[in-house]
Amino acid sequence: MSITIDLAGATAWVTGGASGIGADIVTTLAAAGARVVSLDRLYPKSDGGHPPPPGVTHAHLDVSDPQSIERVARALLDEGLEPDILVNNAGITRDAAMWNLTDEQWTAVIDVNLTAAFRLTRTIVPSMRERHAGAIVNMASVNGIRGKFGQTNYAASKGGLIAFTRALARELGPRGIRVNAIAPGMIETPMTGQLSEDVRANAKSESALGRLGHPRDIANAVLFLVSPLASHITGHVLVVDGGQIA
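^ thats the sequence. predicted structure below, dont judge the formating
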């Protein structure tokens, strides 16, 4: 017996949807029938992003700017694009040992990876609460679980996102809204492609499967968590790392 995930009739918002993991999430949700809004500052392609596939709407959003979040989210809601699915995927790194971190490096990572998720979620939650339905997925990281040298800012942001996920699941569960997180290990993206070969080789050696993940591995996990197959899963952190922290 085959099982097909059908998201026809659902609207999904995905931050950081123009490239990397986000682009695969956008494509995967659209292929399952969802109407997808890709929220990113990189579109069009000349800015480094990918043009959206058919059936996908792009909205220019700078998640580090609270006014941009408010303006764009309100415009989409006014257009009738209330999200049934929200994927807080946008994220950045500014790596350095803690004693070398600047205030700017700390604040930039916290703002994009954690605070932006809070602000956007706060904006759309009233719509979900009114409809007593919705699924939210926050993109955490294995380094938010275990910590990582040179990433105190990143680990703090992703660890905070995990705690945010669990607390929000408690608050929204009575309204039928599920909130989960995904914690990827190292994934083959343009961002990780800039890392040294030693760092990438170390991640591969940590993995029980002996390889880095692909963005589609994360996109498939998102698809599962927002689908009816995960209807009794909330407050969970799904680690997708090939056994990197097993």
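The domain at 11-240 is CATH 3.40.50.720 (Rossmann fold).
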